Amino acid sequence: MKFVKYSKYVADPFDGLSAEDLLQMLQDFLLDSGFFDQYQSIYEMDPERTMEQLHQALLEALRDQGKIPDELLQQMLQNWENYQKSELAEKINKLLERLAEEGYVTIGLAHPGQGELRDRGEEATAGAQTKAKFEITDKALDFLGFKTLKDLLGSLGKSSFGRHDTRELATGVESEGSSRRYEFGDTMNLDVNATLLSAIRRHGQQVPLPLDYEDLQVHQCEYQSSCATVLMLDCSHSMILYGEDRFTPAKKVALALSHLIRSQYPGDTLHLVLFHDSAEEMPLSELARVRVGPYHTNTREGLRLAQRILSRQRKDMRQIVMITDGKPSALTLEDGRIYKNAFGLDPLVVSETLHEVARCRRNGILINTFMLASDYSLVNFVQKMTEICRGKAYFTTPYTLGQYLLMDYMQKKTKHIH
Questions:
Q1: Each residue's pLDDT tens digit, 131-154
Q2: For residue 3, is it within any domain?
């Protein structure tokens, strides 16, 4: 005779967690800018991240979500070797494997004595975590950008995802202007009434009514322009000093802006420039790995690089969006040496930076500055720069940066926020 033994059902706290949920929990870890290990970031601009670090970050995230009791986690982590053999460690490894299976991270194994990675697939185990490295993929960056954009716009209420409006008229689907005669290449948004009236004037009232090419009338709508944008991020060490992480919110805004452009403004382009002692263009796919360093602020060199990038873009609108928290304190001299002065506003650095701003204006490039500091001298400098380039200045905080930047990009309103 068969017996069936019943036991009390205990729900798995990890049931129902999707890969997207895990990625959202790990967002702060994946986009860390060195705020919690400032001294390490001075010597290591781009440190490798191990699977062990990712494992611990997920443990802490699950604890913060209340899915792992804090006391239990503390007891298990006191002996890491025993923990790696536990059932909890196995479950965490399976969650990480799910991230790899769905294409959000790639796992590799470092060769002995080399920094290169070779593919491991799903062979990462708890015992080999000290050697295993991971990289987040473009799919993960796109998801993080979407979530950031959704969160930023959700706090603003309903927002219209239009395009960039101009004063010109063109043919399109939305009729907002008077009709005109059809020309080759126009959108066939036919004004039926005007077309029939034109034919009647020429041929009179008859049936059938002959229509000629010159009778065709089309509606006009607002001409919408494409835009080329260079996002300049200040990655000097001051972005994580003074008890506040200012660089991580800037990275999140860059991800959100990139997703916004790809999904709502497909004709636009976005490039990323980091400026510190010098300046460099950074692919958006590498944005999550970027960390701050012990650098000064070479604003002029960043503006020069941004202008070279925009000169290659055949767009009607070209603009620079600059996010910074400090004064310009470095200058690249003609012989390649870098002149630095971190004490006050150096007249030489300021004058050369303003000359570069004036050059942007002559080239038809708009500069919008998002300032994360409120020092009186810095405010005057930003206002002077804004006056020269006829752009906009936003004196904001890391918490409101994304809302101001995205709404400015979408609405293109001319206003100053102090």
A1: 678 888 888 888 888 877 776 655
A2: no
